[in-house]
Design goal:
Chain lengths: 297, 280
Amino acid sequence: MVVSRALSVPPEPTREKSAAVWLTRLGGRLWKIVFICAAIGLMVGPLLVVIIASTSTTRFSVFPPVGFTLKWYVVAMQQEEVRAAALYSLWVAIFSSIASTALALLLALGLEAIDRARFVVRRLHSFFASGSRIVLMLPLMFPLIVMAVALLDFFSQMGWYGSYTLLIAHTLYALPFALTLVEIGLAGASDELRRSALSLGASPWQTIWHVVLPAARVGIGAALGLTFIMSFGEFTLALFLHEPESVTLPIHIYNSLFANPLTPDITAVSGAITIMTVIGMAIVLLAARRMMDGGER
Amino acid sequence: MNTTFRSAVLLTLPVLIFVVVLFVLPVAMLLLSSFGLPDQNGDVVPSFAAYDGIWNARTGKVFLTSLAISLSVALLTTVIGLQFALIINKMRPTAASLLTVVLFLPLATSEIVIGYGWLIILGRNGVVNLALQGLGLISAPLSLLYSPAAVVVGLTGLLLPFSALPILTSLSSIDSNLYLAGQSLGASRLRMAFEITFPLVRGAMLSGAAVVYALAMSAFAIPSVLGGQRVQTAPLNIYINYINLFDHASGSAVACMLLILVMIPILLFARGKNLLTGRV
């Protein structure tokens, strides 16, 4: 009787914790904090170090920094090469982000329409939809170095030279990412909204222009922001496809590493790129979060 | 064919043509060019000469270096990523979403800037050497840079999100009733970890590892900044062949071999998965 009751009723948890239990709890919590800090340090430590070291007054960038100054940012901006590289980076990033987002928008609208027509043209639909998705997502997994080499060979065989080759490469590179964000944005334009516009006599194009696009504007904005950041900091494609006389900021940093490493003006350039990226990414993440919330409501 | 479908094709076709002409075609031409060399008349004849040129101990060593670095990075990111995701998954929602934001940062920052940061940290007068000297563990600064280990550290930090994010997604989608059921059936915490959690996150771990391996194999900036001339990986070898030696034949042969080595695990384990979220 006593034995069976002891088996069926779980023992009461003791109120007073013994010192051993308390210590293991503390150890476990301490281990978690140390682990999280180490992992975060591994990921964003280099970025923090670049920003902090760029304020050091020494002639070579060191961490921890000595003193505090912002003069290296001014020094960097006064250099002709840095200004030219910054302008070139901006030019490529602005136009490739617009191009890849526009292409992604066309695609997303098209893929959506294919989806809606799937009952009419079933076999063609599955062929077209799955085929185009594979082609579109290819650059996502594809080794950038192989893509860079393939484009370099292709452009030189075609006799295409000039800064627009890098523009094309960055548009291709950013397209899958833009497509993902634009598709999430378009999902926010609900079917009811669309159907009511159509039933009120709007043409399909009017519906897209006045109903779908305004509803998807956060997604489009997020895609523009992300592709801009990606292009601005991209290195491998730029290294293979840049013209000798015009370099992007990442290539300028790379070239300086061989001549005179860790000079403070280059650290300032790296710091400026980092700060820009963090701000841009914050905007993109806020937009993405707003879209996710809107989609669930 | 109805109008919806026609307009859909009209919308997608230009983009598909753009991608096929400027991406699929160049890659196909690269693959083909590695199997043919122009003869005296300039006609391209099929041959494996480009592959004969790279079939030597030097290129073999390059690929072994790449494989060793990428496999260790994939292993490290999976172990750290799993532990990271397990801790975040148990946290309060605000803290967890703050840490998830941190996971997105290295995805967008320039590789070259991250490499630059590691140069400051690991250099002879870097903070690691200063700390070790301050503790009295070493008397002279160690040369931590320009070694395979430095490349592994840099790539692990850069690629950790690609492993942690999919694992976190699949962890948070586990039905908590499973644990209640396990508990009521008298399973220990260890047994629940092995029989509930592990089978459900195994897919995310594998596909994350495959993606990390692929990105580490084809990484260029971090290995060339942190490895210097001493650690030659396959992408560095391609660069040297193309830009320094003007040997496009060997370069394209190495690129094709790299492509095969990268795509096999991706096609096996990461097929049809969204890269960032791990969702199918």
